[in-house]
């Protein structure tokens, strides 16, 4: 038996089962997971013939209106399953900030050590070396603060955006 036939046949059977779940289940979370799995099955270009054989695109277009209606009708339930809880969001933000602060401290200490070592190796006087270290540290701290702000904004947006759609 041809291995390609077996793979296509298996993909076709799995897809039909997933499509049945998508079409016949009333729970939006289950339907979403089935759709996600279906997309995983067809993520490779070589699966296009199987998708065509089972009329995947046509079937997905046909279920779109009912899926949107299910989302609208289960709006409150979806709020529990979409995104992170506010408590988890706070924990994630705090952990990210702590990790970034630790990284900043390590980078600053290493930077000071490297700059002073280079200054000594080049024969730069201690005062000039300290000025260079201060400038480098200020630049590093500014960059890290910007990174922390961006990370916090991204985390908040990633957590908040799913709720905006429902």
TrEMBL record:
Transmembrane helix among keywords: yes
Pfam families (UniProt xref): TPR_SYO1
Gene3D superfamilies given in the database record: Leucine-rich Repeat Variant (1.25.10.10)
InterPro entries: ARM-like (IPR011989), TPR_SYO1 (IPR057990)
Regions crossing the membrane: 91-124, 130-161
This protein's UniProt keywords: Membrane, Transmembrane, Transmembrane helix
Domain SYO1-like TPR repeats as annotated: residue spans: 12-82
Record protein name field: SYO1-like TPR repeats domain-containing protein
The species this protein was found in: Elysia marginata
Taxonomic lineage from the root: Eukaryota, Metazoa, Spiralia, Lophotrochozoa, Mollusca
């Amino acid at each position: 038996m041809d291995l390609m036939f077996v793979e296509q046949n298996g993909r076709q059977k799995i897809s039909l089962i997933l499509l049945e779940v998508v079409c016949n289940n009333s729970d939006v979370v289950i339907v979403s997971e089935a759709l996600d799995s279906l997309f995983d099955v067809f993520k490779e270009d070589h699966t296009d013939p199987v998708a065509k054989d089972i009329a995947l695109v046509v079937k997905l277009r046909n279920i779109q209106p009912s899926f949107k209606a299910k989302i609208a009708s289960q709006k409150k339930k979806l709020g529990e399953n979409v995104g992170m809880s506010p408590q988890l969001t706070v924990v994630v933000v705090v952990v990210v900030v702590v990790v970034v602060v630790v990284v900043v401290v390590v980078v600053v200490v290493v930077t000071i050590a490297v700059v002073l070592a280079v200054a000594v190796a080049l024969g730069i006087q201690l005062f000039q070396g300290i000025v260079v270290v201060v400038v480098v540290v200020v630049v590093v701290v500014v960059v890290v603060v910007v990174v922390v702000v961006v990370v916090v904004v991204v985390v908040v947006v990633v957590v908040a955006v799913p709720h905006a759609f429902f």
